Amino acid sequence: MIDGQVDLDRMFHALSDRSRRGMIDRLGRGPASVTELAAPLSVALPTVLKHLQVLESSGLVFSEKSGRVRTYHLQQDALAAVERWVEQRKTRWTTAFGRLDQLLADEPETLPE
Amino acid sequence: MIDGQVDLDRMFHALSDRSRRGMIDRLGRGPASVTELAAPLSVALPTVLKHLQVLESSGLVFSEKSGRVRTYHLQQDALAAVERWVEQRKTRWTTAFGRLDQLLADEPETLPE
C-alpha cells in the first residue's frame, strides 16, 4: 500500500473478474483453503493461485499458513475503501444536481422565443 | 451489456485506473470535450482516447458528436451497479456476523479447560 490511489487501482482491478468476486463471496461466509476456493471454478490451479495473489495484493483478503494448509480470510472492512469512493462521488453529484435545480428554480420564468 | 456480471467486470476494470477515475470526477462536474478531459493528464492523445473508450464500453460515460466536437457525459446513476454490489455484500456480511454474535451469546458460558 503506497497511497490511497494505488490501493484503489488494485482493489478495483481485483474486483474486475467474476471468479475473484466469487472468491470474495465465498470468503464472506468464512475462511477457506485453496482447495475450497478452487472447487466451484473450472480453471487450473495456477489460475486459482494467481487470482488469490491478486486478491491478497489488493488488501481485500489475507492468508495464513498452518502446517501445509494455507487458509484465506476476508479482510475486515474489505470493501470500505470502495464504498467510501462511491459514496463521496454520490454526495458530490447529488449536491451538484441540487445546486443546478436551485439555479433553475431561481431563474425568472422566461423562455427563449 | 450481455449480463450483469459482464457489466461489473467492465465497470470495475474501468475504475481500476487513476486517470479514468479522474475523468469520471471531471464529468461529474459537467460534460466535457476530449481536449478538456485530456488537459489535466500528462499522457498522449491515443492514451486519452483509449481511456475514454474503456469508460464508454463500461457504461459509465457516453458521448455525442456535434459537428467535429465529441462531448462526453457521465451516465446517470453511473455508479449504481457498483454501489449495489458493495451494499449487497455489506448487508450479507453484517447479517452473517450478527448470526455469529447471536450464536456466541446463546452458548452456555462454559470455557474449555
UniProtKB/TrEMBL annotation, chains A, B:
Residue spans crossing the bilayer: none
HTH arsR-type domain ranges (all copies): 1-94
Pfam families in the record: HTH_20
GO molecular function: DNA-binding transcription factor activity
Family matches, as SMART domains: HTH_ARSR (SM00418)
InterPro entries: ArsR-like_HTH, HTH_ArsR_DNA-bd_dom, WH-like_DNA-bd_sf, WH_DNA-bd_sf
Protein name (Swiss-Prot/TrEMBL): ArsR family transcriptional regulator protein
Organism: Rhizobium phaseoli
Lineage: Bacteria, Pseudomonadati, Pseudomonadota, Alphaproteobacteria, Hyphomicrobiales
